[in-house]
Amino acid sequence: MVMIPEILKHNDQSKTAFTQLNQGNLEKFTYFEIDRYSDNFAFKLSQIGIKQGSKIAIKAKNSVQWVVSFFSILKLGCICVPIDIKMNDFATEKIIKLSGAELLINEKNSKFEVNELNIYDFFDLSLDENHIEMEKLSEECEDKIAIILYTSGTTGDPKGAMLSNKNILSNVKEISKMLQEEGKLRSFSVLPMSHVYELTCNILVSLNLTNTVHFCSGLDIKTLSKELKLIKPDIFPVVPLLLEKIYNGITKKQVKSKILQNVIKFFPKLFGYIFRKSIGLNKLKFFFCGGAPLSFEIESFFDRIGLKIIQGYGLTEASPLVSVNPLKNKKIGSVGKVINSCDLKILNQDSYGNGVIHVKGPNIFQGYYNNINATKESIVEDYLNTGDIGRKDHEGYLFISGRKKFVIIGPSGENVYPEEIEELLNNFIEVQESVIFSLDQKQISALIKLNDEYKEISYHKIKNIINCINNKIERYKRISKIYLSDMEFEKTSTQKIKRDFLKNINVSDYKSVM
Fold it and tell me: What percent of the chain has pLDDT over 70?
């Protein structure tokens, strides 16, 4: 297999590839139908003048229609430019212009300076009548660009990471090897396919293994619970934010119930069994978690109640996977072992073994579209400089400490990783989210968004939380200034906080606690 659309060409195409709810009814789509629909739509695109090599953007919610659009674009030899459905019009217009997209496949008519096609219009096409199978593209296309994925990033302007068929399929093959012994699996999809984590690790891997993916129709608790109970998935790819919400929900109930506290303390697996059954996770083998750091405390809690979390590490430029925990030998707090096809080295290590992670392999991107300078900065002697700080233990497990560009240099040259302090802060039930920063590289400041039900707590209580954290960490990491935000922080598609606002932060805009 050298081209992504070949994933659909299984011996038995009658198996169900996708399910989704439509007006309360469960729709099922076979591999044959996805293959046929994408052939038909690719032909329709060619009829309206789309040529091989053209760039076509998709901005729509997760659905079978999104998948069909994606495969249609690739079958025609075009390049797909996925755009996050939540992205505002200004940012969408910017990506359309930066990528040079000729067409936008959209859910609604907009006023962008590009031709548009409604994603639902083509689904009236017949599976049988006028079917024209698209010609198989040459194997030389293996190294040609399949996707340009613009990273919204935690700082700065978006950069278009160019991923080839070979890049993505190398990851698909690695993850498939890891999962093939698990048998046939039902997967649950809530993360945006506009991010390569969901597209590669869930959608394409599931298709490669002839598994079934269900597209959840909403992200609210009621819809999630209803569809989880209906589907009873075996695997569920998530980002840490979802696990944090589940954990916080359980924690809030514990505060109000001494009985629940004791059940969780003395009979954690019993609680886990009841909880799993109550929300439709009774058949879940594991959560696959990536996209952002996960708290050690939260992972430990889920492990204790019998809900396994398999953490991995990656980035858009690596298609995305670089490392993942072995299914049968995971290590809590670690993002696992480096995948076989990747070579990873850690440069400029400190006394704790922390250094900048560099990776090389067939999954590493082709560079940033029309951005030679950014490409040169990211590729150093054939290795991708991830900008992430990490270390390996004696067994080869990788641990992520933070981002190099976020590191605060202490007064005596010590490295302070904001993410480590944020993790401690966010574990308090009163705290919804936080950002650690320094205005002078001497004093550590915390900007905190409290959970709504705790926004009226006293400054004394907030100071007690900070004192509790300060007593656990080294002196040079201790928080000396506290500010409160009334608003949630803007986030990327994988729910990482965008930190570019810190460049010009005016602390007088926030309430000062100390």
Answer: 94
